[in-house]
Amino acid sequence: MTENTDAPAAAPLTVPGFRRDHAAHPPLDYPPYRSTALRHPTRPLKLLPHMLTEVTGPVFGHDRIGDLDHDLTRQRSGEPQGQRIIVHGRVLDAGGRPVPHSLVEVWQANAGGRYRHVIDNWPCPLDPNFDGAGRTLTDADGRYRFVTVRPGAYPWRNHDNAWRPAHIHFSLFGTSFTQRLVTQMYFPDDPLFGQDPMWNAIPDEAARQRLVARYDHGATEPQWALAFAWDIVLRGPETTPFEQEADDD
Amino acid sequence: MPRTTPSQTVGPFLHIGLADDPYAADEGAPGGLWIRGTVYDGAGAPMPDAIVETWQADPDGRFDHPADPRGARTSPGFRGFARCATDADGAYSVFTRKPGAVPGPAGPQAPHIDVSLFARGMLRRVVTRLYFPEDAAARAADPVLSAITDDRERDTLLARAADDGYRFDIRVQGPGETVFFDV
Ligand SMILES: [Fe+2]
């Protein structure tokens, strides 16, 4: 490989960045979640100014999404066991603007709490009609919609009698590298929140509640499926007209 | 204004939802190269349940994206994004082309790739940058590298030349810990 000298002269260029939002997120070092012990950096993170690589990101087109990718109940020959649900909402940025045409990926356990994964072998049956993965693109208004079954809670070995609250894993790309987010959606009033280190790792109670979907009777379809609504908020631009509230930082 | 949604770990079953997509450039693309590496934890053990994502400019330092003020530019057979879960030995590999220099606020940045790492046991992603060994002069002028004063820390961001591309290992914690960024 040779020095890259034939690239066009790169004239200085400043681009608007994204607002930092550390307080919203759990720390990387959180001893009650035992696996963080050997998996968190010990040196302080170094500030990366937002430049071109950070304010851009992959653009995914419809060519990469199948017609049934958003419907986890229709990916096999029959219907999966469990309570059929609709999960829908909007992807917004922290400036309140919709994030259109962006990739949303989900994965989850089946109704009994079992994942279709080689390392998940707790005594709960797999469902031959449920794979547990979906993907979609947000529309022009940032809306997304999945059809699936309500996932079960499942045990893990982090602490004595540890159970994960029922959840759906969500992966979001937004429109920039900076906005990339992987998170989990929970269901209202789950009695397992209090013993869950992933839930408790989020420092602020109000921020935890932002991971809980709302039962949506208006979107519930008679004789067919319960609906849950959940909006997802990605980082917004550094310079918005309404920047008085500084407590996200 | 709405508040941002908190991050949560990808957990151990990430492979179900985050499918591998290791080709940032079409196979056989001119100048195509592999970036291969291993992800290690704080005990020096390979991490078999992590996923690496890469994002970068095209060989001319351009992005196919509306936020590039020079204009979005499509580069045929090139997507700039790749993703690869680590295997049982903690190894990942992505196929791409070398990015060009990218403008920064005070002059060019050396060719670089932004790297996200997600894993079981990580409540949010960590972000690092990969630079290329042959670009010594450009790296010396790079604003991100210049802000790192410790040579050994800076060297953690340097890929090594390999037979079919480059090698870039990631050490999450401990001796040789990779520099991670607050993005
Ligand atoms: Fe899970």
Please tag this protein with its features.
heterodimer, A: 249 residues, mainly beta, four-stranded antiparallel beta sheet, disordered N terminus, disordered C terminus, B: 183 residues, Protocatechuate 3,4-Dioxygenase, subunit A, five-stranded mixed beta sheet, globular, binds fe (ii) ion
Describe the protein:
The complex is a heterodimer of chains A (249) and B (183). Chain A has 249 residues and is mainly beta. Chain A has a domain at 64-221: Sandwich (Protocatechuate 3,4-Dioxygenase, subunit A), CATH 2.60.130.10. Helices cover 5% and strands 23% of the residues of chain A. Chain A has three helices and twelve strands; from the N terminus they run E-H-E-E-E-E-E-E-E-E-H-H-E-E-E. In chain A, strands 2, 5, 10, 11 and 12 form a five-stranded mixed beta sheet that branches. A four-stranded antiparallel beta sheet of chain A has the order 4-3-8-9, with no helix packed on it. In chain A, a hairpin with an 8-residue loop joins strand 8 (167-172) and strand 9 (181-186). The longest helix of chain A is centred in the last third of the chain and has 5 residues, at 205-209. Chain A starts with 45 loop residues before the first strand and ends in a 15-residue tail after the last strand. The model of chain A is unreliable at 1-7 and 243-249 (pLDDT under 50). Chain B is mainly β and 183 residues long. Chain B has one domain (11-171): Aromatic compound dioxygenase (Protocatechuate 3,4-Dioxygenase, subunit A, Sandwich), CATH 2.60.130.10. In chain B, 10% of the residues lie in helices and 31% in strands. Chain B has four helices and twelve strands, in the order αββββββββαααββββ. Chain B has helices spanning 14-17, 136-140, 143-146, 151-155, and strands at residues 33-40, 50-56, 81-85, 91-96, 102-104, 107-109, 112-119, 126-131, 160-162, 165-167, 170-171, 181-182. In chain B, the strands form three sheets. In chain B, strands 1, 4, 9, 10 and 11 form a five-stranded mixed beta sheet that branches. Chain B has a four-stranded antiparallel beta sheet with strand order 3-2-7-8, with no helix packed on it. In chain B, a hairpin with a 2-residue loop joins strand 5 and strand 6 (107-109). The longest helix of chain B has 5 residues, at 136-140. Chain B is globular. The mean pLDDT of chain B is 97. Strand 1 of chain A pairs parallel with strand 12 (181-182) of chain B. Bound molecules: fe (ii) ion (FE2). Fe (ii) ion binds next to strand 8 of chain A.
